Amino acid sequence: xxxxKIPNIAARFGPRYGASLRKxxxxxxxxxxxxxxxPQCMHKKVEWVSVGIWRCRKCGYTFxxxxxxxxLTHKVR
Length: 77
Prior knowledge:
Layout: H1 19-33, E1 46-50, E2 53-56, E3 62-64
Antiparallel strand pairs: 1-2, 2-3
């Protein structure tokens, strides 16, 4: 069975900037662009507005969250 291919949106950079930086950028952008659930209406319609600001496209609820994920998964010191 073939391995599932991870989408690589950093492929547009080609060989520039180094492999490790492209991999890190790819992971951040995949987190930022993926669909998240709204805490108010429970639909997967949350979109990134700005760094730390997220908005639901269905109900219009705007809330603060992480820079690239609406809900932090680790402790902030």
